[in-house]
Amino acid sequence: MRALTTSSPARFAVLVFAALILLFTALLSLPAAAASGERTPLADALFTAVSTICVTGLSTVDMGTYWSPFGQVIIYIGVNVGALGVLTLASILGLIISKRLGLRAKLIAAGDTNPMRAHGGPVNEGQTVRLGEVGLLLRTVALSTLIIEAGLAILMYPSILIAGVDPLVALWEAPYYAAMSFTNTGFTPNAGGLEPFATDYFFLTVMMTGVFLGSIGFPVILALWRSQWHIRRWSLHVKLTLITTTLLFFLGAAAFLTLEYDNPLTFGSMNAWDTVFQSFFLSAMTRSGGFSVVDVGDLNGSSLVVGSMLMFVGGGSASTAGGIKVTTLAVLALAVWSEAKGRQSVQAFGRRIPSDVQRVALSVVAWGATIVALSTIVITHLTRAHVEDVLFDVISGFATVGLSTGLTAQLPDPAIYVMAGTMFMGRVGTVTLAAAVAATSRSQLYSLPVERPIVG
């Protein structure tokens, strides 16, 4: 085990994540976890465990009625454990075992949480930068999770009472909704989902706030806590994350408003204020939140395409959100813009982005697109379903969003396993997964002759 953690921290973290999934699969398979008192089928237990640990939100059963209180508690614990992140989680386990955060654990944590990271897997001294601050970052992860979820629960509790929920039951549903918001999971503890809160704008706004805080990433939360509104002190990572997140939020809302305002099954039956608000809510949730007031299956095909694009991008790095990450999109967009302007280097806010970061960004998109394409092909073949529905649910699974056209609940067992694998690869992260599978990196002490192929 020691040799494994030393040679490949990323691979060790993947094994930790896989072990957690197996543990929660066993727990959810217990008869006591189901409301019926019967043992849950392996496919459903495994899928729910993956969706829980990967904070996805997709399910093959009704989450509000299928699980017993014991099962719901298991799921609640699972999403908070999964929200810590693959490598951060491995670091905390190492801290518990060794009673101190050693260099190896710091390298593991820095590999996932440091915005200056250039490669997946083991990171060198130049990439870890402020290695001594990793312990502080881990404390920030734990404290911010606790404080934010507690604050969200307190704000949500009155709305849950107004919806007619028993006060004692509301004491459970408030922290449950808070956890599902901050972790960007999207599970609901009641059978009707968000139906009781469809017109409660305060509750939905609090939920959007929780999703936003969970999706920007712990390094950004730490930077904002330290620098607050001193924008000049913000790192390039913080600036790119916040700007891209805000831009996609408004562009997504505008797209859904334009495409759905006359759809009688979604926004067409609402007044102007409801339509605008629900457009912003849907835009926020397609980024990784996973909650929905309208039935996703009733959206126009054009809206499903927009939703798929937003889901594929996801949230910020080292966050509870999935996808290829907003900084990846920002780096590629800046690279395209620099190429169009004829610049020799990619620049933003007075900083130059090195070429190795650009290559990693391109690799993340390529790996992500490949995983989504292969999963879509396989599941379409197994189910014979419409490819647009399959593609939407596959991207939702890969980006750990949790929205569904209704297809996931009808998947046969072989397709369930494929979707579970897609969620696992999406949550672990394409770069981390590639580093875990690849052999130890080799240094090349020579350079080959240059030859330029024709591109485009």
TrEMBL record:
Cell location: Cell membrane
Membrane topology: Multi-pass membrane protein
Keyword match Transferase: no
InterPro entries, per the entry: Cat_transpt (IPR003445)
Ranges that cross the membrane: 73-97, 136-157, 201-224, 236-257, 309-337, 357-378, 415-439
Signal sequence bounds: 1-34
Keywords: Cell membrane, Ion transport, Membrane, Signal, Transmembrane, Transmembrane helix, Transport
Coiled coil: none
Pfam family, one: TrkH
Name listed for the protein in its UniProt record: TrkH family potassium uptake protein
